[in-house]
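Q: I'm writing up a methods section and want to include an example of the input and output format. Could you take the sequence below and give the corresponding predicted structure tokens, formatted cleanly so I can copy it straight into the document?
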Amino acid sequence: MFHRYGRARTSSERQRPSQPTAGPGGPRSLWVFAGQGAQQPHMGVGLSAAPDLFERVRSVAGLDLAPACVLDETAHWDQPVVQAAILTIETASAQACRARGARPDAVLGHSFGEYAALVIAESLTFDDAVRLAVARGQAMAGLADGSTAMAAVIGATNEAVEEVCDDLLRSGVPVHVAAYNSPGQTVLAGTREGLALAAPRLRAAGAARTRTLPVPFAAHSPYMAAVQERLGQALEPIRVDPPRVPYYSSVTGDRVRRPDEIRALLVRSVAEPVRFRQAVANALSEGYESYEGSDGSEGYDSVLEVGSDRPPRLLGLVGEICRCDVPERPPPRLCAVAADRDAPDGRPFVPTAAPAVRS
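A: Here is the clean output for your methods example:
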């Protein structure tokens, strides 16, 4: 769940920037995958791998995604359909890049985007990820009664938002931090009444604005306990392998290697905050330190958002994280891919200035 900064370049601006200096192993790329909110009309158009994957979803889960990927008003929040569609389009976009010789040097996902990241890291098979997406979506659909919601908080520090939430919780108002998206963007989850009470306090704490998100439940909060139980059951027969490339969890923000830890984190993820900011900052910092004998000047040449390009959902956040959390490192090139024609390097993205973070 995220509110986005930045914009894609216009056609007149799409001049590819000069290639950053590569490390000793050649150009290196961190691939990121968006979660809920990445759905958009006409998903999958221009992806040659999509039809075969649609057929796999039909075979595995009985869902016909070909018309659903248009995502009209009826299908837009049909949870099993939406989650399976996001997974499928992100996987098809990654396959378009791979077919043209690109490979990720590390992966991470924002919330549900972790499932596509794990498929590309060869920790989960696509079929098993579909099964988990459908189980997760069905459980979440049962909680979409409109009594809870989510809101983005723009311009206040994460710490200031935490203080407001803590004060409200102590007074019996259930509002929780659901996502740490960037230094200047936090997402909250709670009852609609609680979020309404929080809004003026957040503005007093430095928020430039708050925005209710079109989400009919309180994801990444204690309200998701029933989803955790259902997802844990669905995971029991699923094989989880060690990731073939570095994988960063958006639950902890850290690199995760062990299958048992990945399994546990997938269950935890639905009821705990998304730590996208921490995961990106850690991946970028560790990427610069991963070369044996590195002098600290190397790292990831690009961050590629895979599967959402019109507009990208995460790259504005990544740009802010680079400026604020790893300012000593050369900024990577930010690109997005959502169709065969964008692969393998993606379309360049230039963030606009984010609202100033106020304490």
